[in-house]
Amino acid sequence: MTLSTEAVETLADRVWQAQAAATAIPKLTHDHPGMTVSDGYLVQNALRARYEAAGHRVVGWKAGLTSRAKMRQMGVDQPSVGFLTDRMAVLESSAIDCTELVHPRVECEVAFVLAQDLPASGCTAEQVLAATVFILPAIEVIDSRFERFSFDLPSVVADNSSSARFVLGSTARRPTEVDRRTTGVGLVQNGEVVATGATAAVLGDPAAAVALAANLVGSLGSRLEAGMTVLSGGITAAFAVQPGDVVSARFQGLGTVDIRFTGDSA
Ligand code: OOG
Ligand code: MG
């Protein structure tokens, strides 16, 4: 770690303001070139404290950069985690206002809903499966607060791993009811299939990504708890959206989830 407590608080304020105002800022390593991933998580923890103090509730966590497609797209070679709040949740088939976001992108993901707490260290995919009440199809809407959606791992971690909105579908399945390796998914934007993939793209099994998230969140002094929703990470690359777009993630055997985007030019 390289940042002083004061610097961590200053950077958390900077990210908090950029998120609230939906304005792009330079990546944090621009001013703090020595910043590490651990520093990024200190800033993320301080950011989470600001959300909680403002009355937002942490309802889950997301694993990010868990597929090769995502790592390649973003030029980062390690997964990350971020927290999800009640106000990031959006009802399926409703609309998201793009004016509240900087440059949103969509991802198709498998969401896990936990019936039991997960261990905060040494968590395995088997323990995730035992603790999961059901899985759901999901669209995550990510939004980097960094200019040109360009960052490095310490910066994106500080920006809560680009968390912005998430949309859960209503087809619930037991995690052992679907083949978590070969389940196919199509990401459809305005009627056109923009990407296809299979769930094995996420660390071979999305349950492994949830186990990784449990351990990473544990190292931050928190825990994946009963009742929480955990996003396991984008299966394909992410796609930019604009006002007027309609997006759906169609999963084989796990249903479909849709969302619309509105804004100034819609
Ligand atoms: C970081 C967040 C990545 C995922 O599912 O891989 C993510 C980013 O790409 O901005 O949410
Ligand atoms: Mg994601």
Structural features, described:
The protein is of the alpha+beta class and about 270 residues long. The chain is built from six helices and 13 strands. The strands form two sheets. Strands 1, 2, 3, 5, 6, 7, 10 and 11 form an eight-stranded mixed sheet that branches. Strands 4-13-12-8-9 form a five-stranded mixed sheet, with no helix packed on it. Helix 1 packs across helix 2 and helix 4 packs across helix 6. 2-oxoadipic acid (OOG) binds near residues 64, 74, 144 and 161. Magnesium ion binds next to strand 1, strand 5 and strand 6.
Low-confidence stretches: none
* SSE order, one letter for each helix or strand: HHEHEEEEHEHEEEHEEEE
**Straight-line N-to-C gap:** 45 Å
Derived structural class: alpha+beta
Give the biggest beta sheet.
8 strands, mixed
Small molecules bound? 2-oxoadipic acid, magnesium ion
- Quote the average pLDDT: 97
Strands, count: 13
* Rg on CA atoms, Å: 17 Å
Summarize the structure.
With 266 residues, the protein is of the alpha+beta class.
